[in-house]
Request: fold
Amino acid sequence: MLITILNKSLEAKINTKGAELVSLSKESFNYIWEIDEKFWNKTSPVLFPIVGSLKNNKYSIDGNKYSLNRHGFARDLEFELLEHEEDFALFCLKSNDETLKNYPFDFELQIKYELKANELDVTYKIINNSDIKMPFNIGAHPAFKIDYNIFDYCLEFNVLESFKNHKLRDGLFAEEIEIVKSKDNIIFLSEKLFENDALVFKNINSNSIKLKYFEKDYLIISFYNFPHVGIWKKPKAPFLCIEPWTGYTDSINSNGKIFDKESIQILNPKCFFECKIKIEV
Reply:
């Protein structure tokens, strides 16, 4: 079911399946990629309780083995609509018998979408209702509509970066790093950048990225409590994903123990964690 929120400047639509943003429009122009199955069947999936892939799609806790597919299960499940006003909507996913089979924690994931002038705020709240510590990661994965000619676009980061890309091999870190070329803290985009999957910047300094078209501002995505960022597109596809993450994929040398996983977040019993993105158009 699609839920619509709007204000004087913007209109957004969110699918209750996955609490997934499917459109963000200003003056009838939608900034979110519109699905074309030959490229990708998502628009802005929520990545939870993991980001990226586990080695062999498996992990263990105290010798017990579990399985989670790439990016976890939240993006494929129906969320409950808790609140809905003209300019905001609050969605919720709670643990159930199915999620407990491969993620043995009593959790609640709340996602609030709120329009403020020319921006959309998305707040993620993870609650650990268990009596034990809960490992998790969460990530945003919005796909922004661009023209087919990616050379017309660039990314400007708001803090000086070295742009160390942690290279992927079959969805896992290959323990290789390359420096992505930049000028004045701007990365000029090309198809070649994405030949080996996403660009992954761990522990970046910036918390805001401008997507620019012919060097003019197209949109700005800002993020809070997200220390890592992935940049991804499918070859020749007319979209670009700018993905703030709290964690990332396993390395090829992972031992499979979830509490040892690099970048994993640990949430104490009866506690919560919040993070936020803002998309300004």
About this structure: The longest strand covers residues 107-116.
